[in-house]
Amino acid sequence: MSSLAERLNAIDSRITASLQANGRQAASITRIVVSKFHPSGLVRELYSLGVRDFGENRDQEASAKAAEVDDLELTWHFIGQLQSNKVKSVLEYASVIHSVDRQSLLDALIKQTGERKKQVDVFVQVNLTEDPARGGVNDSELLGFADSVAAAPGLRLLGLMAVASLDGEEERDFGKIASLSEKLQAQHPDAKYLSAGMSNDFELALAYGATHLRIGTAITGNRAY
Ligand SMILES: *Cc1c(COP(=O)(O)O)cnc(C)c1O
Known about the structure:
Layout: H1 4-21, E1 30-34, H2 40-48, E2 53-56, H3 59-68, E3 75-78, H4 87-93, E4 94-100, H5 103-113, E5 120-125, H6 139-151, E6 155-161, H7 170-187, E7 193-195, H8 202-207, E8 212-215, H9 217-220
Parallel strand pairs: 1-2, 1-8, 2-3, 3-4, 4-5, 5-6, 6-7
Helix pairs in contact: 3-4, 6-7
The protein binds pyridoxal-5'-phosphate.
């Protein structure tokens, strides 16, 4: 059994090697450790190893965990499907939301961020599959929806987020998201970030321009459901 520090170092070495192979700068990458289903003690341990960006996908779990480590300077990334009635709670701890994917959610975000001084960073999630249950905007509606997100004063559109379908065609999926990202940047040059890549596909995602990696099990070990 490898230790947490060894797994973290091993992943970071692979990220570094992959960036070098693609001629990219290490500073351009945000490596998020997905801590879902793990206790706050693991977050504390990872913090002591230098991790500052954490990802969670369920508000109930995330808000409790964030409260337990609120003495630490962390950035929480909300990466899961988000119900509009949870927006207020999520904004109490998360500063980046990766899963903005429909008008009702956008409306809730606009309502909750109207009075804020600091903008909330958001990604628009793209659905790369035919399955609406996976969340995400269809590519035909993507650019119009992204315009609405970019127009919201309380939000800063960082770019696109996607989860590759698990059908062995990750290369097709990452190619698609990279080309959608180019189209988006033609309209919104600052929306140049790409949240893609998980434990099993982050190297491929990096080859297609991912800037925000969401890595769970390869670092934390298996999740106890
Ligand atoms: C759980 C999760 C991850 C991390 O997945 P691993 O395979 O454990 O790396 C990444 N993105 C999202 C949206 C997730 O829900």
